[in-house]
Amino acid sequence: MTKTRIGVVDYLNAQPLIEGLESDRNAKIIRDTPSRLSDMLQVGKLDVALVSSVECFRHPEFRILPEVGVCSEGAVRSVKLYSHNAPEKAQRIALDRSSRSASTLTKVVYLEFFQQTEVEFITAEPTTRPSEVDADAVLLIGDAALQADPEDMTVTDLGALWTERTGLPFVYAVWACREGTNVERLLPTLLKARDRGLPLRPRLAQDAAKKMKLPVAALTQYLTKNLRYELGEREIKGLERFRDLAAEHELCSKHDVPFVGARVQPV
Q1: Do 159 and 91 share a structural domain?
Q2: How does pLDDT run across 66-80, given as a tens digit for each residue?
Q3: Average pLDDT score over residue span 187-207
Q4: Are residues 96 and 223 both part of a single domain?
Q5: Which of 5, 104, 216, 261 is deepest in the core (most CB within 10 A)?
Q6: What CATH number should be reported for the domain holding residue 146?
Q7: Do 54 and 255 contact (CB within 8 A), yes or no?
Q8: Burial of 29 (0-12, 13-18, 19+ CB in 10 A)
């Protein structure tokens, strides 16, 4: 049997979704950044991947698998903007090149929420020393955001800012495949992996705390309270609102949320 090529990220926030996939003999796990996974999915090098949600409104061939996502309502703690002064005064913003959803969210924040149109967006590599980046503000995501030293910079949690301005959750990543992919076996596999992984979050936090040199309690709260892994009705409304705002500023296309067909129950 041909193995299913599954693209995953190494960030701690994805571990509850992929922990149960490691032992699946029918799965071939490919690890990379969200942005590169999207590129690989687009050209058919992956069967399914955990990709930045905004990519599903940029590639008409992408389809979102239902029920699973990486989401937050309020502070997320791993999508942060570090600024030397008040964030709304920044003119040159460096965007972590790893994630396209967070980069697009940052642009929405400036263009829509802050009404700042005379800003320059550049890309930068992830870093734990944002103060050393040649920019007024720096976006960091994932583990780099958790570990970054803010020094004397102002830190803005973009998950908290999004919910404050919209009253909705934010969806950072989704499982996506290409149109025409047979998901009858794939979706139950991913749902079962999530359901096996969620109870393991305290252990995942403990393991990560040793590697990242961060408090266990903080990472446990991050995985169990800050993050959500269910793609429910409110999350879909948040995704639609993000799509609408991004489309208004020509950052993506405005079309229906591209789910695959009817919901498939896990076996």
Answers
A1: yes
A2: 999 999 999 999 999
A3: 94
A4: no
A5: 104
A6: 3.40.190.10
A7: no
A8: middle
**Do 221 and 187 lie in a common domain?**
yes
Task: Report residue 35 as tokens.
Answer: 């942005």
Considering Cα of 218, then 219, then 220, then 222, what sign does the dihedral take? positive
Query: SS3 of 6, please?
Result: strand
- Bridge-based pairing of strands 62-72 and 228-231 is antiparallel
pLDDT of residue 253: 94
With contact defined as beta carbons under 8 Å apart, do 255 and 190 qualify? no
Q: Cα–chain-centroid distance for residue 127?
A: 17
What is the mean predicted confidence (pLDDT) over 246-257? Answer: 94
Q: For the whole prediction, is pTM greater than 0.90?
A: yes
* 31 and 10 Cβ atoms separated by less than 8 Å: yes
Alpha helices in 151-185 (DSSP H): 158-166
DSSP 185: T
β-sheet bridge partners, residue 93? 121, 137
Q: How far apart are CA 31 and CA 191, in angstroms?
A: 19
The per-residue pLDDT for range 78-137, each reduced to its tens digit, is: 999 999 999 999 999 999 988 899 999 999 999 999 999 999 999 999 999 999 999 999
